[in-house]
Amino acid sequence: MCFRWTPPGQTRICISSVSWKNTGLPFPTLLFHAAIAPRPPVSTGKQQVICPSGFFPQFSFGRLVLHYLRGFPSPPYKCRTPSQFCSFFLFLTMKPIAFALFLASVAAVAAADGFRVDLIHRDSPRSPLYDPSSTAFDRVRAAVERSALRRLRFARAGLAASGDTYLEARILPDNAEYLMEVELGTPKSKVVAIVDTGSDLIWANCKPCTRCYEQTSPLFDPKDSSTYHNIACDSRACKLLAVSGCSRNSKCRYQYTYADESQVVGNLASDTFTFTTTGTNTIAIPKITFGCSHQNSGVFSNRTGGLVGLAPAPLSLVSQLGSFINSKFSYCLVPLSQTSTTSKLVFGDDPGASGSDVLTTPLTIQDSFYYLTLNGISVGNTNISAASPTASGSPNIIIDSGTWLNYLSPEMTDQLGKAVKDIVDLPVANDPELSSFAACFQVEGSRDYKFPDITYNFEGAPLKLGPLNTFLEVSQDVVCLAACSSDEPQFFGNVAQQNLHVGYDLGANQLSFAQVDCTNF
């Protein structure tokens, strides 16, 4: 039987036999005999062991080792490369149907294991955006401002999606909330990228960058990467772009215009992306489509070099990984006060999102955003129903890692604020600068204060949140409810998602919540 795979100069690999062998290593070894049909035709009599850098890493983290041999039965072989290991192999005959079942199990094991990467908050000492001179209250105020601006851009993007304006329905997470480190190309070039569930295209600044912000870290040079390939303008990937063109040599050109009119312009390409997982382990994913940006304008931080989109759109990273990760990803956000550890982003299944304590709720995709259905909010003995025009029973709130606060309809915000004020036995803070919050309290001289739990009643998932997720100390001796009034759209932001393992199952259209200690995740 044969399956398609396209290493340089090859068109397909034909498997004649496969077996497992116990080699004494801490993982089982897959051994099989393969004949590669070359292009153009050449003799297959010569023995050659191939460890394809593109295919191999996808299975190595799943405790599987695959080997390729051009030709016919031969003595045992082994091969090594700088980053990969191909152990001894043994050939046993298998029927095609058995091998087909095996391939299915391989994919299942690889996806089931998943892999984790560090998710770095912008205010972490590990972040290039970290400002050691900022106080905790400075960072809170800056985050509130970023959150408000992001909400406005989402609203503009909604207009774009409805056709009321030319701007594309995409949000630029300028200044970012979370970052990740990726290595691009062969040899690897480090890129610090914004991570965002509200954006789709993956892009990185590339040489030459003729009209770009002055990035502080080195630019990625596609000429230095042996695995870099430009994508043709007649390709399917190019046609997925809202605005694209064709260069003189048939390269796909793209232009992304965000809702604040910032732009990135460049060539659509593919290359290998390498992620650092546990410790110093890495996983390399070949042929990831991304934008190699040669021009940009607008609001960008010069301390970041790109963006990794996690939105539900064809060119996002989660969509490109697709069945390899079972169309699943998740994250676990550490409390904002924790600076000694990082949050985690998980691609694929993860045991942290299983068990009887996991809540699940329907996940709806609208305008390339992730929507949930919020039926109401409970605090104390008060139940607050979702109000018109975002009535209960339909998707009405965006879950977003890039928005800091929760934004609720004016009716819900007003009722929630009143309910909390009835419970909290503290004087109300009346600072005009705090007017956007649902409720604020003076805590001066009273360190023994208590705030109530608040339950967000998502469809089928009553998510009970403690004060860590629902209240913020916004200034000296002032604590506010981390919810603000907003016309559509409503948001469930990342303060509310601290110490939650939030899992996105795009195949089942389902989102899960699990209460965990993310510092030990």
Automatic annotation (TrEMBL):
Keyword Transmembrane helix belongs to the record: yes
Alphabetized PROSITE patterns for the sequence: PEPTIDASE_A1
Pfam family, one: TAXi_C
A GO BP entry: proteolysis
Domain Peptidase A1 span(s) in chain numbering: 178-514
Record family assignment: Belongs to the peptidase A1 family.
Protein name: Peptidase A1 domain-containing protein
Organism annotation: Ensete ventricosum
